[in-house]
Write a structure and sequence with these properties.
Mean pLDDT: 85
Low-confidence stretches: 78-87, 246-254
Radius of gyration: 18 Å
Number of helices: 9
Order of helices and strands: EHEHHHHEEHEEHEHEH
Strand content: 5-15%
Distance between the termini: 27 Å
Structural class: alpha/beta
């Protein structure tokens, strides 16, 4: 492994993952390229695309993919339609055929090992109650497993086991990048991690706050235990007022109205960050 291995770590966060596209644009414009990409959930989708070909052209295509998701029927349907799917499945609101088709059309290779840059993504294995890292095999299956949001999409079956969203077990997998030899790490995330949590005030906030505690606890713990020679950059989202966790509007997974704004804000903030720290080449 090269001593200067650079990793992009892409976290989960649903439609807020559009921030990561802006961060990628800023990084690649300044010539910051990864030797390793690790991703969780929506970060697995973004990460797989950039690992296929880490170029500015790919970022443009990734932004287009987000627009296609916005226009597609992957998460479309009336309330009655979604309730009908839930009644039939008893576990989820959407089937995953539309999303699988969209990813198959958008990702240029079939196998993870065919990607230009080493790529791994994580999912939660139901049978073993553990995190499972996918470093080889069918790319779309692995990405679908990593992004199978509980209650929204069905579990993905791979080799006789069933997998749910990787954010359950490792939402921002900095530790994995270090374990794979990264010495410089750029963390691409969806925001909120630097804003203090508040006690829940409503029934629906209880599970959300509990999940966020677990998510942040692991990320903060991973950062605190990094070796001194690891150089970590947590890229900014450009959110002027990051949403409070009690604001459930941020979890409206079908709300894609702010995708372009998320990309633009994260790009501007990340470009300033890189310039101020003289990272990459102008």
């Amino acid at each position: 492994m090269p001593a200067d291995k650079t990793a992009f770590v892409l976290g989960g966060g649903g439609h807020l993952g559009a921030h990561e596209v802006g961060m990628l644009q800023a990084l690649l414009e300044r010539g910051v390229l990864p030797n390793l990409v690790v991703g969780t959930s929506i970060g697995a989708i973004n990460g797989a695309a950039i690992a296929a070909e880490p170029t500015r052209a790919t970022v443009a295509r990734l932004a287009e993919l987000w627009s296609r998701i916005e226009r597609s029927d992957a998460f479309d349907g009336s309330i009655l339609g979604r309730l009908g799917t839930l009644a039939r499945s008893r576990t989820h609101l959407h089937e995953n055929e539309a999303l699988r088709r969209l990813l198959a059309e958008s990702l240029p290779v079939e196998l993870i090992e065919e990607l230009a840059v080493r790529f791994e993504c994580v999912a939660a294995c139901i049978e073993t109650a553990s995190e499972r890292w996918f470093a080889s095999g069918p790319l779309v299956d692995a990405v679908m497993a990593s992004s199978a949001v509980p209650g929204i999409l069905p579990p993905i079956e791979i080799a006789g086991e069933h997998f749910l969203d990787g954010g359950i077990v490792n939402s921002i997998p900095v530790g994995r990048a270090v374990a794979l030899g990264a010495r410089t790490i750029y963390v691409l995330h969806v925001g909120r991690v630097d804003r203090p949590l508040e006690p829940p005030r409503w029934p629906w906030e209880v599970a959300l706050v509990a999940f966020e505690i677990a998510r942040r606890h692991r990320f903060i713990g991973d950062l605190a235990t990094l070796p001194d020679d690891i150089d970590v950059h947590v890229m900014p989202t450009g959110q002027l007022n990051p949403p409070r966790y009690s604001d459930i509007s941020q979890f409206r997974y079908r709300d894609t109205s702010k995708i372009r704004d998320h990309i633009s804000r994260a790009y501007d903030a990340s470009a300033r960050y890189l310039t101020e720290r003289s990272l990459g080449s102008p």
